[in-house]
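Q: I'm writing up a methods section and want to include an example of the input and output format. Could you take the sequence below and give the corresponding predicted structure tokens, formatted cleanly so I can copy it straight into the document?
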Amino acid sequence: KNVESSYTIKSYERMLVELEDAESVDQSKAAITTMDKASLALETAISNLARATTTDKNIRAAYKELQTKIKEAEAIKKTDYTTETYAKITTAITNAKKVKLVSTTVAKIQAQKESLQAALDGLQSNVAAEQLTEMKKEIDALIAKAETKSKNDYK
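A: Here is the clean output for your methods example:
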């Protein structure tokens, strides 16, 4: 059995593509040449599997952390936060999901993870926004009341 983490990301992804292609061949209807091509391509991909490097292992570890951070961000409830700060979360999630394991670096993954964390850290609760609005109304009312007073009223 092939263990994904044992192989380079690119060689393993190539093998998965060829495996999917081979599995999609309808053996009851396919021509022998089609089955031969699928078989040869899969056999080649299997024989070209290369042992994972430290870089591959680091990328996989960082990618796994990013996927965890994406799930954390996706669990955020829109209604609990201000529209502006929630929009930053959705943008960060969209950008993070664009990272493809087969064509990335640890630095790119870390940048997206940090962007997600910054958006999470910047979330403002709707409750806090409502409280601020109420406090502003109270302060505005007090200011208006104070502005109606003059020194002469208190002599």
